[in-house]
Amino acid sequence: MLHDDSSLLLKTERLSKRYGRRLALTDCGLEIPRGRIIGLVGPNGAGKSTLLQLACGLISPTSGTIEVFGAPPAADAAHLAKVGFVAQDTPVYAGLTVADHLRMGARLNPRWDAGLAHRRIDQVGLSLRQRAGRLSGGQRAQLALTVAAAKRPELLIFDEPAAALDPLARSGFLQNLTEFVAELGASAVLSSHLLSDVERVCDYLIVLCDARVQVAGDVDELLVTHGRLAAPRDALDRLPAGIEIIHPGNDGRHSRAVVRADAPLDHVPGTVEKVELEELVLSYMARAASEPTARAVTTAGEVLR
């Protein structure tokens, strides 16, 4: 389904990024609506960080186009203020105190919300006098998240910010992320290789493998349009039109496959069971690994080329 551009958070057309001879992202086409928490998943080296850096305006495309809120990323100061970015290592300045970070945020961001910043610092138990270099990994992540959110952006971008955190710290970080998104009325993109994190907080999914978007869409819609089919071994060769095999397998007498369908899977040979998000993601990753030259991009309800 195509969206009016005014309703889009991010739009890319044939977006590619090359570093020397290596393609980090190729032929990427996306139309993502506003008001979502988007999970960006894929193996290491798939192009996730490249896509996020393009969305922030930190790097430029080799070819194709990308728009955030209908304009090129970081088009001007006002547009730059709409985006808050927390990089993978949740960067803070080791020699500065928590208070120093808040003062710097206030100087650099015209829409800085000092009340929000101080309230959140109190809620996560940070002292304004503590130096960032003496904070735990979870505390540094909370400080970086607070600084990004207190600029009151319309989009928060997170590049695997919780990857190095212990389970308790990661849970607290994700809880605060969802609270910030709700309070600000913002959208968010969360890159993570932890599918449990994505499943917990995201309502929109992008699977990126082999520098290409493999599937993208509303999580609920993706789960409805995919299923696990168990059928006689030759049945996968005679499936009705409109059913795409994502990842096949067999257990001897029967074939099993994760499939995508344009219509309900009511009239197919065998039995169909629901798939969980993790199985859906892993099926697309496995297909990409076995067919690295595949160019099709499957979205919820359509195939883009």
TrEMBL record:
Gene3D superfamilies: P-loop containing nucleotide triphosphate hydrolases. Residues 10-235 form the ABC transporter domain. It comes from the Bacteria. InterPro entries: AAA+_ATPase, ABC_transporter-like_ATP-bd, P-loop_NTPase. Keywords: ATP-binding, Nucleotide-binding, Transport. Signal peptide: none annotated. One of its GO terms (molecular function) is ATP hydrolysis activity. The keyword Nucleotide-binding applies. Pfam families: ABC_tran. Belongs to the ABC transporter superfamily. This is ATP-binding cassette domain-containing protein. It comes from Phytoactinopolyspora mesophila.
